[in-house]
Amino acid sequence: MKGYRKYFGKKLFWFGITFIAALLLNFTLPRLMPGDPVSMIVSKQAQGLTEASAVKAIYDNYAKEFGTSKPMIEQFFTYVGNLFKGDMGTSFSQYPRKVADIIGSAVGWTLGLQLPAIITGWLLGNILGALAAYVRKGFDKVLMPMTLFFSSVPAFGMAVTLLVIFSITLKVTPVAGGYGYDMIPNFSWNFINSVLQHYQLPFWSIVIISIGGQAIGMRSMSIYELNADYVKYARFLGIKDRKIVGYVFRNAMLPQVTGLALSLGTMVGGALVAEIIFSYPGLGTTMYQGIKMMDYPLISGTTLIITVMVLVATFVLDIVYGFIDPRVKAAQFE
Amino acid sequence: MKNTIRQVFHSPKFVVGFCIFMAILLTMLVYPFINPGDPLKMIGLGTFAEPGTYVSMYDSVGAPFSTFKIPDADVKRLDKLLTQDDRAKMREWLELAQVDVSELDVGDMDSLLAMWKQHYDPEIRIPGMIKAVRNYYIRLNNSILSASVSDTLKVTDTDEATGETIEKTKISKTDYVNVDDVANVISLPLGTDNFGRDTLKQLVAACGVSISIGLIAGAVATALGLLLGLLAGYLGGWVDDFIMFFTNIFTVIPSFVLLILINYSINQDQRGAGTVALVIGLTSWVWTTRSVRSQVISLRNRDHVNLSRLSGHSLPRIILTDILPYIASYVMMAFILQVSSGILAEAQLSLLGLGPKTTEVPTLGLMMNWAMLYSAHLNGSWWAYFPVILVIALISFSLNLMNTGLDQVFNPTLRE
Q: Nearest 5°: CA angle at B286, between A255 and A206?
């Protein structure tokens, strides 16, 4: 364990740096644009308002919230300070709810949907890819183009297609939302059942999409490993095929863990857009509402939370990788 | 070079992908000649007209006609008139009016109609039936009667001077107009969208715009990634550290989030397709940089590069002649993938409402966005969104297929 300290320390350092960079970007990007960000937001917000005093009131409110009169550095520290107090400002579209509140109620849904879906998709994809590499021949020829096609369908496209087939035509699953319209979240059997029913389509649309890319990566990796010298040597030694396959897939898995860490951002982005199609009460739908209503604090809050979630997931994957990759382990105990 | 190209075209995967992509490009080039005009012109007044051929009713009245006596014309007419739902309702009425319907099969038009005509009487009041339902039956009965009884339809016009009604022409049930004789026939293979625009024409135009967005984004990302990767890999030292610092950060921060933040900050009226493409390109160079760098590092100390350096060749020359040819195939593959992800990124942004300005050009994402905003998926207008999804999937499938094919050609361990 002691040997890992340096590895974890390095990872934690990068996590910290990236986190600060994410904060900076979230803070500066909207402010870097030409013109006064406050007046831009106000002009969007105040469309249709004729009374000058109302527009002025909105402007003052924002100017205070952003603190645009102060220098940039000071603004940034106020922003970070507020963040650590859990204050992300007040939502306009759902006034007077706090952005932190809205996000808090959405995060659970997104985590509960995406985490299991991405893990399932990753596992299934790897199994399929490994099988395709091992069996080759027909399996490989028929299944691979199919997986490639399915992974080419955008997540929202898969979501719409599943929705139309299962909810609208066959009427076996509910059309929208995370639970029945007539329910209040509680821990009754009825509610859990409704949640599970609403869960099916978003879950499977993410799983089907993510299988493809993983399967193709795993197939390439496995073929590469199967042709490696150590496999041939093991065969000469007369080690059972089953055992060799075990070694091979363990080695092929490692780059797949890194691959997952690297493609996480793209997968999460796609899945968030797919949420909108199902009006699933997660972060994707929240962000969409924010964009539609021009609710700047809400958008800024959701993008920050999504970034932090991806950062944390990547960090966790890095840690897991450290434990399962023998090379890292060896390096730590030298 | 020639040999490489020949080798690439021997890969079945690459060839299939290439053919699909070329077919899409060809359709994009040829279709505007077959069906010219502005793809964003609103031709229909309603929303979501179904796919099919539309014949002007006005023009077909005056058009020369021929007489055909077709035996099952009446049956067909009624078939079209009465939906399955109507038939079930008719049976329901008969049941409520205490007629014995146990023998009746709703699918059998003749017996249903015979029984209906025999028993239906608008005067009969069925207890418990609300007025709206009663009126529905009266209307239904009227249309059944008109379809089966009157043999001709009169077309009349009002004389503007006197206000009299003049009979223009009589249309009999046996009159048929040749579609070629009708002046105005529009063919809408994919119907119209929510604004009444020709979906197919729009789709073809959108396809072109989306592919160019992908190409621009891919070119920008690849050029930037290549440049940074070459610098970092070849020069090493602090340049490498500096570039990799940013690369590491942007690998983890999802580009999706950056795209949202940047695009939200640009006002909608300044957000053309070109701007969106540029922004997508500027946020997706990370992958190319990382891989080009690692390839260049492994090339940097090869003998031929060292020899070149000893001969005093300049840096650009070494890079152009000794390094680039080795990574060219890889860069090509990265470019193909980036085109495909650029198209996808545009579609996702547009779905969120952060895509290009809506009034100028159609893009695949914008078409999808409008279809979703007008709930095409909930009201059964499949033609407004399904072709779009299919086209996105096909484009990215063909590009991925080409990429896999190239991978197999340049990566001998993957060959079958």
A: 60
